[in-house]
Amino acid sequence: MIEINNKIKAKIDTKLIKKVTEKFFAYYKIKNKDVSIAFVGDRVMTRLNNKYRGKNHPTDILSFQDDGNDLGEIIIDYAQIKRQTGKFSKSVKDELIFILTHGLLHLIGHEDETPKGMLNMEKEGNKFIKNL
Fold it and tell me: Against a cut of 0.90, is the pTM above it?
């Protein structure tokens, strides 16, 4: 099951989010796992980023793996996605798909804490996005 929670006033294309997540599950042959995706604002994201990563500023995405039957939880700061569009992607939609894919890759065990991990994760994400 894919649960999407919009905790902000911005209109989010939840059909797009669900479609990308379903295609990700199919591509990586993920079955019988649940994922929760929440959209939050800067204030909530800054608090979470500070609590879990020790960084007192908003970030675009946080991913939390679950060791049970759930794949995990993804928190996305939509305002941050909009701010970084143009720097990384041509449109908000493209940036959102890239960031969602990035978060989902974290949930299946990819890391980006090392240069090698970051490069591998970027290659894997781009490969998946091309197959969309």
Answer: yes
